[in-house]
Amino acid sequence: MADVGGPAPYIYVSTRMRVRKAKLIPREEYLRMLNMSLPEITRIIGETEYKKEIDELSSSFSGINLIEVALSWNLAKEYQEILKITPSGMMRFVQIYLRHWDIQNVLTILRGKVQGMKPGKIKEVLIPAGELDKNTLDHLLAEDSPERIVDSLKDRSIGAVLAAGINEALETGSFANLENELYKQLYARMIAEAKEGIKGGYEFLAYIQMAIDLKNLINLFRFRAQNAGEDIRELLIPGGKAFTVDDLQRMSTIESLDEFIDAARKKTRDPELNALFEELGQKRPVHEVEVLVTKYQLKQMERLSKLHVFSVFPILAYLEMKKYEVINLRAIARGKEYGLPNERIQGYLVI
């Protein structure tokens, strides 16, 4: 969408985001789905914004596979539609934000290949929304080894990091370090983009710094849960606002959860972030920590989208909310498929 001058394009896209947010599935509907069977959940999803995908795919897929593919198709389509209405002044920010899907898609393919999954099964959960389009992802799926996949990406923005880390990932059987290095590269590029002096960069930088702080917090809680003895610096992403890498490194050595939370609260004057630390002060599984942190992030993005109407925030806030709607629906469908108790499924939902 080309800018036509003045605030008109920004008002238009902000309005469209509000309309789309109003169509997102409410909390009550998720709770209702928890008491349904998988076929009932499929029917309910087919009555929402996912109807077209459910109808188109129902002749080829069923059950959990139908839900997985329909959600992936819908999310990718939604991202492409958002790009079409994004004002040109914001396009660079939205496009680089969407590159986190390149990381997720490539790692999903690599992990699937290592685990011996069929390409069709891997494809069900890919979201072609970043720099790597559907045809590129299909080409990667057709490669016969992780090394060939990485080699075919050597000229892409993530190619050098993949090449440097793939051997260790295959030797250890873990892609965690490689994933972390890819996100470090992405956030560094996002910060550089935000600081280039382009209009809207200040607001985009605020989003990036918040995202880095919260991703680092989650990594810190994962580190604590594993009682890892190594230095945590390699797991952390530089560039946050509330916490430096040195701050987080010092906090990682604190054994007492109460003392750890006190140290975290002393580093921020944000009352809402401090309220989050109050909740995190109770001993919780890591997935519950991730849910609480994500809910905080979505709440902050919604607040910022209202404060900065003529910025990239309304778009980013909606894209994140839509992503977590899909994550929630997948969690419910998979939980039902595996026969998990409702309480356990609900613990993974961002609602």
What descriptive keywords fit this protein?
351 residues; mainly alpha
Task: Please outline what is shown here.
Helix content is 70%, strand content 0%. With 351 residues, it is an all-alpha fold.
Structure commentary:
The structure is a single chain. This protein is mostly helical and 351 residues long. It is 70% helix and 0% strand. It has 19 helices and no strands. It has helices at 8-22, 27-33, 38-45, 51-57, 63-85, 88-97, 100-114, 119-123, 134-142, 146-152, 159-172, 176-194, 201-226, 245-252, 257-266, 271-280, 286-307, 313-337, 342-346. Helix 3 runs parallel beside helix 5 (63-85). The longest helix has 26 residues, at 201-226. It is globular. It starts with 7 loop residues before the first helix and ends in a 5-residue tail after the last helix.
Total strand count, please? 0
What overall form do the CA principal axes indicate?
A: globular
Structural class of the secondary structure composition?
Answer: mainly alpha
Helicity range of the residues?
A: 55-70%
Q: What is the oligomer described by this structure?
A: single chain
Ranges where pLDDT stays below 50 over 5 or more residues in a row are none
Total number of helical segments?
A: 19
Report the C-alpha radius of gyration, rounded.
21 Å
Helix-strand pattern: HHHHHHHHHHHHHHHHHHH
Proportion of strand residues: under 5%
User: N- to C-terminal separation?
Assistant: 32 Å
The biggest sheet amounts to: none
Average pLDDT number: 91
